[in-house]
Design brief:
Blueprint lengths: L5 H11 L1 H13 L8 H13 L3 E5 L3 E7 L6 E8 L26 H17 L7 E7 L8 H7 L7 E15 L3 E3 L2 E4 L1 E10 L3 E2 L9 H13 L13 E8 L6 E2 L2 E10 L2 H22 L2 E8 L4 E3 L1 H15 L4 E3 L9 H5 L4 E9 L21 H13 L1
Parallel strand pairs: 3-4, 3-5, 5-16, 6-15
Antiparallel strand pairs: 1-2, 2-4, 6-16, 7-14, 8-12, 8-13, 9-11, 10-12
Helix pairs in contact: 1-10, 2-4, 4-10, 6-7, 8-10
Bound molecules: nickel (II) ion.
The site of nickel (II) ion has 4 residues, from loops.
Length: 394
């Protein structure tokens, strides 16, 4: 038995390191970089990790992988993951540490995630003697843009030879009060695919219908047919969403155009249903096109897969959060129809993506220019991440 009691020591240490963690976050916040362009961000992360005596290197282009080795079987490992990219927004938060890069802003809290991970790695590195196995700190680039930095990370096979016991990531949530952490077992976030459809017929004078293969009429029927794809969902409580958001038939009162362009989104919470929905979309495009004598050119830009949390891991880490902060500061999350490239990891390893409350200070919503998360969460999240890795590996 190991009588090392990490709980209170980690909380106290995270609180003691708060100023340093916040400084790290503000530095990233002031110098945001867009997806896959996080060069200065990666350099800063590397420099700070090296100062702290933590082994680290560049991975996946502009990402950073840190390694903290404990003792015992070092091939057993936990991955703690943060994303590091920013968004193309003009910051209006009014914070003193606002973006110096005009038109780029950390409006999704990835600066907070990177800082929390940095803080957690420092806590674990200071306790290497008690830590079992290996903890990887993955500062992942390009979460906001397809194909997603997670797919690059997996393509590099960075963890060959390791048995990954868990991959854990967190995301700030301004809808939750600071100090509260949200969890969900199983299906959590949606898959997201973009649909591009071009209906090509034969246009002409609107009065001469006999000469037309009318793509506008075909497109109208196709929209209705695609709407019916949602009916294949066997579980109405777990949404399957298909929306067409852009339809362009650029004719005139008396001109039927040759083609109509449509764009939309497909979201599911289940990979099998996602495949079925895609097949159904293809079939309906073919059928409607055949009926109207037009061509329906379908392109599906595959987005991120569903985030499906490992149920045992979710309950375990929720329990750890309850130990640290009190059960009243944990809650069950609802399904979330947004997408996250963390979904790729959930297909490979037992994984958990949870939420860290940063709300209650009037700091605006995610992906808005006024987003300003409550930094006090940075005295808590590093302790929970560190305890999670420590507990899974012990
Ligand atoms: Ni985000």
């Amino acid at each position: 038995m190991n009588d090392f009691e990490p709980k209170h020591s980690l909380l106290a240490a995270a609180a003691a390191a708060f100023d340093d963690t916040v400084a790290f976050r503000r530095r990233l916040h002031a110098h945001p970089e867009l997806s896959f362009k996080e060069t200065q961000t990666a350099d800063y992360i590397l420099a700070r990790l090296r100062e702290a005596g933590i082994a680290c290197r560049r991975v996946a282009g502009t990402g950073v992988l840190a390694t903290v080795e404990g003792r015992g079987d070092l091939s057993r490992a936990v991955i703690l993951r943060a994303d590091i990219d920013a968004l193309p927004l003009h910051e209006q938060s009014g914070a003193a540490w606002s973006s110096c890069n005009e038109g780029v802003m950390h409006a999704c809290g990835h600066d907070m995630h990177a800082a929390a991970l940095y803080g957690a790695l420092r806590l674990l590195n200071d306790r290497r003697g008690e830590l079992q196995g290996t903890v990887f700190g993955l500062f992942q680039p390009g979460e906001e843009v397809n194909p997603g930095g997670a797919s690059l990370v997996l393509g590099e096979h960075l963890f060959e030879g390791y048995r990954i016991a868990a991959c854990v990531g967190e995301h700030v949530d301004p809808e939750l009060p600071t100090g509260t952490f949200g969890f969900r077992s199983g299906k959590y976030m949606a898959s997201s695919d973009e649909l591009y459809i071009k209906v090509v017929g034969v246009g002409g004078h609107g009065a001469m219908r006999a000469n037309l293969k009318d793509p506008v009429l075909a497109a109208a029927e196709l929209i209705t047919a695609l709407n019916g794809v949602m009916d294949i969902n066997p579980q109405p409580e777990v949404p399957l969403v298909l929306s067409i958001g852009r339809v362009v038939a650029d004719g005139a009162t008396n001109v039927v155009p040759d083609c109509v362009e449509m764009e939309g989104t497909l979201r599911t919470f289940d990979e099998e249903l996602r495949s079925r929905a895609r097949a159904e979309i293809e079939r309906r495009c073919r059928e409607v096109a055949a009926r109207h004598g037009v061509r329906a050119e379908l392109y599906i830009d595959r987005g991120y897969p569903c985030v499906v949390n490992d149920a045992g891991l979710a309950q375990r880490v929720k329990g750890l959060a309850a130990e640290l902060f009190g059960a009243e500061h944990t809650l069950e999350l609802a399904l979330r129809p947004t997408a996250e490239d963390f979904g790729y990891y959930t297909q490979v390893w037992p994984s958990l993506f949870f939420r860290c409350g940063v709300g209650g200070n009037g700091g605006g919503k995610l992906h808005t220019p006024r987003f300003n998360p409550d930094e006090r969460a940075l005295s808590l999240a590093p302790a929970l991440l560190a305890l999670t890795a420590w507990d899974i590996l012990r």
